[in-house]
Amino acid sequence: MSEIGHIGVVGGGAWGTALACLGRRAGRRVTLWSRDPAVSEAIARDRANPVYLPGQRLDDGIEATHDLAALSACEATLLVCPAQAVRELSARLGGDAPVVICAKGIEVSSGLLMPEVVAEVLPGRPIAMLSGPSFAEEVVRGLPTAVSIATEDPALGQMLASALAAGAFRPYWTHDVLGVALGGAVKNVLAIAAGIVEGRGLGYNAAAALVTRGFAEMARLGQAMGAELETLTGLSGVGDLVLTCHGPLSRNRSLGLALGKGTKLVDYLAGRRQIVEGEATAPAVLARATRHQIEMPICAAVDAILHRGADLDDAIRALLARPLRREGK
């Protein structure tokens, strides 16, 4: 196969819809599957996704379906679903096309990163991981965006980049699948912490320190697991971390912001259709860190606030009271 002509997209949320638009702009045939028939019907009938991208006109020619079997003939399948649904949907994929994982997180039940989950479910299937600083709404609007596509096969990486590169959207390929997957997972937890800092009114100094020390945690865990520092300092690491911690469209930051202002977690999540990945990922990140004997105090504080009943101000004071140490540790 010299190029990818037919792209399947599993997931009719904001990011899946945006990637479907990119595929069409790059001149590819695109089939988009949604679990919700109403979303598929709206895309097919109105070229709109009023549930997840209200007010955005979608590109013509997207074939919307509610039948996952319609993707079996695609030459690449983008898996764009919540992290905790990756195992279920991977198991339902037909054909033998490469699977491009666009979900950011760690499976709570197993502690596995998304590529590890897919490799377990679909042994021998070519796998890639797409991640980076990319708000779906801005991508649909055609604003400049750059992401990483990681796969062990450089030829596949180049084909995938060509299949999605359109207008101001620039994919860069790399071989470090683990690094790209880990950066996308950890940054969601850190973005909740960044939102708390802002919601609590702790100032710009604290916000900058949070992102910097948060990246140090990401880098420690990543290198212990075998990720490359070059990847973690790239688009899928630092790039996505900066966007998610400071961008107003970040769901993880928005959760932290609400918590910082006194909203209870259960009240914030009630009735929301979109998943806040960092909420489920926090304990899974800590489990991986414990396995590798890596300290991640910011991520631990987020988990304690979300899942262990920790008082928010007590958690902040505990972080500030940690022993002084040389930078780089």
Model regions low in confidence, pLDDT < 50 over at least 5 residues: none
Structural class by helix and strand composition: alpha/beta
The Rg value, from CA coordinates, equals: 19 Å
Question: What general form does the structure show?
Answer: globular
In the CATH scheme, what's the topology name of the largest domain? Rossmann fold
Give the biggest beta sheet: 8 strands, mixed
Order of helices and strands: EHEHEEHEHEHEHEHHHHHHHHH
Name of the CATH superfamily of the largest domain = NAD(P)-binding Rossmann-like Domain
Return the CATH architecture of the largest domain.
3-Layer(aba) Sandwich
- Amount of helix: 40-55%
Number of helices: 15
The beta-strand count equals 8
The first-level CATH class name of the largest domain: Alpha Beta
What is the residue-averaged pLDDT?
Answer: 96
Strand order of the largest sheet: 3-2-1-4-5-6-7-8
Please give the alpha-carbon distance between the first and last residues: 46 Å
Strand content: 5-15%
Number of domains: 2
